[in-house]
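ok so dumb question maybe but i'm new to this and my supervisor (M.) told me to 'just get the structure for ATP/GTP-binding protein' and walked off. so i did the thing. is this what she meant?? sequence i used:
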Amino acid sequence: MYLDPDVSHAVKILIVGHFGVGKTTCIGALSEIEPLRTEEEITEASVGFDDLSGTPNKTTTTVAMDFGRLSLSESLVLYLFGTPGQERFKEMWEELSRGALGALVLVDPERLDESFPVLDLVERFGLTYAIGVNHFDGTVDYPLDEVHEALNLSPETPVVRCDVRDEQSAAQALITLVKHLMSLLA
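this is what came out, is it supposed to look like this??
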């Protein structure tokens, strides 16, 4: 992909994943502006809908989207849109996916089964994606090739380990996606 240095380019990227995987945290770590968050307190209304067993300390949830901005150069700006992770908010996906160039799919290796509905949506909307295996304190660092195989990904789909709380680590996951997108557009 050739980018004319005299022309500004804005690219829409989705940050997606299942409930409680770190999407809001990732955008917060990456955004050069104060991120827009639509976080609300988790209430009793979520009982039976949201499985908090994998995230027992989670007290808020995204109900619409998160938004951040990251300038990669004078001529390339990424607009980061985080989707809600719950099944009941999947209607937001169609709107958010319009115009998106790709998606960084965050997964928790302890809850890979929760990633399949997310991957189905990403593929349904025709988004190119990379996988960011978010590392949580006290969890096993599974080999990336095992995660790749367990998710039944195509051979060219990049998989990278990250800690979305850390700006450098989250940026490396995003760079992996951008490089993947550029290799497909070349």
